[in-house]
From TrEMBL:
One of its GO terms (molecular function) is ribosome binding. This is GTPase Obg. Keywords: Cytoplasm, GTP-binding, Hydrolase, Magnesium, Metal-binding, Nucleotide-binding. Pfam families: GTP1_OBG (PF01018), MMR_HSR1 (PF01926).
Length: 361
């Protein structure tokens, strides 16, 4: 199945039905008074997350969605039928953005999470609603309002704990194969990975984390070179980034310069993404002696003024991977604990504010 992570669609909510002008004419009640009913409300359009969907490809072919219009009111005070709602199902991790205002309308992060994107029109009133003691035969009624319509950009962003980035042929796919059961394509030419992919890294029967692999970046990616930076958005939800560096590039390029290129492209794309916790992972140390690998990594770290963690691994030989994955798991557990404590503190603060306000009324 083709991986599609961004589509534009047009949503048109239903119009509200008009109110009815009608008078009761029965055999024994020739002037029975008004009996015009209200119109029905227009249908809404909702978006809903579905764990069984993993791409937005369906919306490449169907780009316009219309909800049903509300029916007009009828005599005998019968209300018009409500317009049919429409629900758009998307993968978990999809974000809906208003194209005209660039406003993020919702972020679908849970299975069966539901959000209204456009609201249907309000029903019109029948003449029965205008009846009063001084106006016993009203001929007034109101029209239903128009439903909303919007152009929406759907953006799929993968849900992962850890994100991997680096130059093409840095060994990201080999790394994924070595630490998980995923089987991404591996070859000795650039851009073997063309679409983002997810893999589950299991430390033991209880602890695991999800890692995301994206296509490699090259110099000028922010200007569209190579595959560009279109897939970097999939790293925005990650708590930790792994910057994989080929310590012995087959094209004999400078690993120091390659490292700087990725850091520069990341900053160009998003300052927020560039400030995420990131660890350097120097790969392919099996191609050099231990002394040469250590000397080169220390020179790179010093040259780019790196202050965070860094690791030396060989994804092909599984060297250093176990310690790296254990450290990642510890990082994730600490992150989850911190988030839990922060949420508890917020709840406690709200509770204390409520009690303080209650006691000081």
């Amino acid at each position: 199945m083709k991986f599609v992570d961004e589509v534009q669609i047009l949503l048109i909510a239903g119009d509200g039905g008009n109110g009815c002008v009608s008078f009761r004419h029965e055999k024994n009640l020739p002037n029975g008074g008004p009996d015009g009913g209200n119109g029905g409300d227009g249908g809404n359009i909702y978006i809903q997350a579905d764990k069984n969907i993993n791409t937005l490809i369906d919306y490449c072919f169907e780009k316009t969605f219309r909800a049903g219009n509300g029916q007009n009111g009828q005599k005998n005070e019968r209300t018009g039928k409500r317009g049919q709602d429409v629900t758009i199902k998307v993968p978990i991790g999809t974000r809906a953005r208003n194209i005209e205002t660039n406003e993020i309308l919702c972020d679908m992060t849970r299975h069966e999470q539901r959000h209204m994107l456009v609201k249907g029109g309000i029903h019109g009133l029948g003449n029965t609603r205008f009846k009063s003691s001084v106006n016993r035969a009203p001929r007034q009624h109101s029209f239903g309002t128009k439903g909303e319509n919007r152009k929406i950009l759907l953006e799929l962003m993968l849900l992962a704990d850890v994100g991997m980035l680096g130059m093409p042929n840095a060994g990201k796919s080999t790394f994924i194969r070595s630490v998980s059961t995923a089987k991404p394509k591996i070859a000795d030419y650039p851009f073997t990975t063309l679409t983002p992919s997810l893999a589950v890294v299991r430390i033991d029967y209880k602890e695991s984390f999800v890692i995301a692999d994206i296509p490699g970046l090259i110099k000028g990616a922010s200007d569209g070179a190579g595959i560009g930076i279109q897939f970097l958005k999939h790293l925005e939800r990650c708590h930790l980034l792994l910057h994989l560096v080929d310590i012995a590039p087959i094209d004999e390029s400078d690993p120091i310069e390659n490292t700087k290129i990725i850091i520069k492209e990341l900053k160009k794309y998003s300052k927020k993404l560039a400030t995420k916790t990131c660890w350097l992972v120097f790969n392919k140390i099996d191609l050099l002696s231990k002394e040469k690998s250590k000397e080169l990594t220390e020179r790179i770290v010093k040259e780019i003024k790196w202050n965070n963690k860094y690791y030396l691994v060989s994804a092909l030989n599984n060297e250093g991977l176990k310690n790296l994955c254990i450290d990642i798991m510890h990082f994730m557990l600490n992150k989850q604990y911190s988030l839990k404590m922060t949420n508890n503190q917020k709840s406690e603060s709200k509770k204390n504010n409520f009690l303080w306000n209650k006691n000081n009324k």
